[in-house]
Amino acid sequence: MSAPTRKAGTARRILGSLGVLGAAAAVAGLGTFGTFTDSTTPITTQVASGTVDIDLTSPANAISVAAGSFVPGDSMTRPLTLRNLGTADLSSVSLAVTAPTSSILDQNTTNGLKLTVDACTVPWTQGTNAAGALTYTCTGGTSRAVLASTPVKGTFSLPGLASLAAGGTDHLTFTISLPSTADNAFQGKSSTLSLVFTGTQRAAGVR
Is 22 in a helix, a strand, or coil? Predict the structure, then answer.
């Protein structure tokens, strides 16, 4: 009776060993499975930033707002050419006028100096009047007021300029005048004016 018991025990031990070996083989097999992968061909993408480059030139005359012996009712006009030399459009162009040397001429916003800006679709034609003062006429083109008469000092938006577009050019004149309402308080005074044009990039968006 004892012999069959030994055979059964031996059989159980062999089966147990086979079960362990089978589990080990299964675990080993888990490490040999492959994973399929694929990659795209490299794609080259170039991202270039635009440039904002606003240029100011004054044909025939240096840009200056110096004028001596102004009396009430006097004015002076000077031409300038504004170009967008950058590769990016602009959302706005502004003109800032400051007075490094200040006086009642620029401080009085009612009777003090006034500024106007006009544009012509072609370069302005320069001439002289009977008094020998320079004059500018929009000949062969269309003119419009860009900035109506305003106190000379401040920051002003210049709407509708061609130079808002990359490569665009504007033919402008600025006129500074002393109103005829200026009284004796304005005699013998002097102001130095600085004009700075600033271009601001277009609004950012999806490209």
Answer: helix
Please tell me the distance from the alpha carbon of residue 185 to that of residue 187, in angstroms, as a whole number. 6
The reported pLDDT for the residue numbered 67 is 52
Residues 146 and 166: their CA atoms lie apart, in Å, by 19
Q: What is the CATH number of domain 54-201?
A: 2.60.120
User: Position 16: which residue type?
Assistant: G
Q: How far is CA 46 from CA 49, 50, 85, 165, 189, in A?
A: 10, 13, 22, 23, 58
CA distance 174 to 126: 14
Least confident of 37-51, 137-151, 192-206: 37-51
Concatenated DSSP letters for 126-151?
A: EEE-TTS-EEEE--SS-EEEEEEEEE
Question: Which of 13-27, 89-103, 125-139 is most confident?
Answer: 125-139
**Cα distance between residue 83 and residue 54, in whole Å:** 6
pLDDT in tens, 6-19: 544 544 443 343 33
Domain ranges of the chain: 54-201
DSSP class of residue 57?
A: E
Contacts (Cβ under 8 Å, ≥6 apart) of 70: 105, 178
CA distance 80 to 65: 12
For residue 116, which of 178, 183, 187 has the smallest C-alpha distance?
178
